Amino acid sequence: MENYSRTRMGTDLHESFLQLVRLGIGHTESTEITEKVDWVALKALAERQGLSAIVLDGLDAVNGEGLTVHGSMPQMMRLEWIGEVMQNYEQRYFAYEKAISSLASFYNQHGFKMMVLKGYACSLDWPKPEHRPCGDIDIWLFGQQREADATLSKEKGIRIDNSHHHHTVFNWQGFTIENHYDFVNVHHSRSNALLERVFKELGTDDSYSVELDETRVYVPSPNLHALFLLRHSMIEFAASGINLRQLLDWAFYSKKHKGEIDWSWLDETLEQYGMKKLYDVFNAIIVGDLGFDVNVFPKVLFDPTIKDKVLNEILFPAIPNEKPKNVISRMVWKWHRWKSNEWKHKLCYKESMWSAFCSGIWSHLLKPSSI
Question: Do residues 358 and 196 touch, judged by C-beta distance below 8 A?
Answer without folding.
Answer: no
